[in-house]
Design a protein that fits this description.
The chain is of the alpha/beta class and about 160 residues long. The chain has helices at about 20-30, 45-50, 80-90, 110-115, 130-145, and strands at about 10-15, 35-40, 65-70, 100-105, 120-125.
Length: about 160
């Protein structure tokens, strides 16, 4: 039986609620060796991150993510708007990056709209802290140990 070598994956977490951001961060700490977590507080910053604008220009510090954890309800640019931009207007390679939509809303219209816009998964954030932790651990394990993600290369700066 061969051991699968775990590659480090970069997760971009877009979340405006500092409590939820902290929950996700502490749950992912268990995977510290295999997950590099980058956090932004809304969809506009997530877009800037993906475009390498401003402080996000340094791809050593701010590598393109292997997985995006996206909150639905955020100020300025919400999860739907960011997802629509990512899937249709971002550089072609970036359109393939898996997106896990995370929301406190389990409203069927929200779920359907997220999938219609190209979300790869939709999680309703559990209210209970230990269940939230378990949920984030499960998704971390899935995306780091089991799922293959497309390798996205940053365009070279010529």
């Amino acid at each position: 039986m061969s051991m699968k070598v775990t590659k480090t994956k970069t997760f971009l977490h877009a979340e405006d609620d500092p409590n939820d951001a902290e929950f996700v961060e502490s749950a992912l700490k268990q995977f510290s060796g295999s997950i590099k977590l980058r956090s932004v507080r809304d969809g506009v910053f997530a877009k800037h991150y993906m475009q390498g604008h401003g402080k996000y220009a340094d791809r050593e510090l701010h590598p393109l993510p292997d997985v995006i954890l996206l909150d639905l309800k955020m100020p300025r640019l919400d999860g739907f708007e960011f997802l629509a931009w990512l899937r249709t207007q971002s550089p072609a390679g970036q359109r393939l990056i898996p997106v896990v939509m995370m929301s406190s809303s389990g409203i069927i219209e929200d779920v359907q709209r997220a999938y219609a816009l190209g979300a790869n998964s939709y999680l309703v954030k559990p209210m209970d802290a230990s269940k939230f932790d378990e949920c984030v651990n499960t998704l971390a394990a899935y995306w780091t140990l089991h799922a293959e993600t497309p390798e996205i290369r940053s365009p070279c700066n010529l």
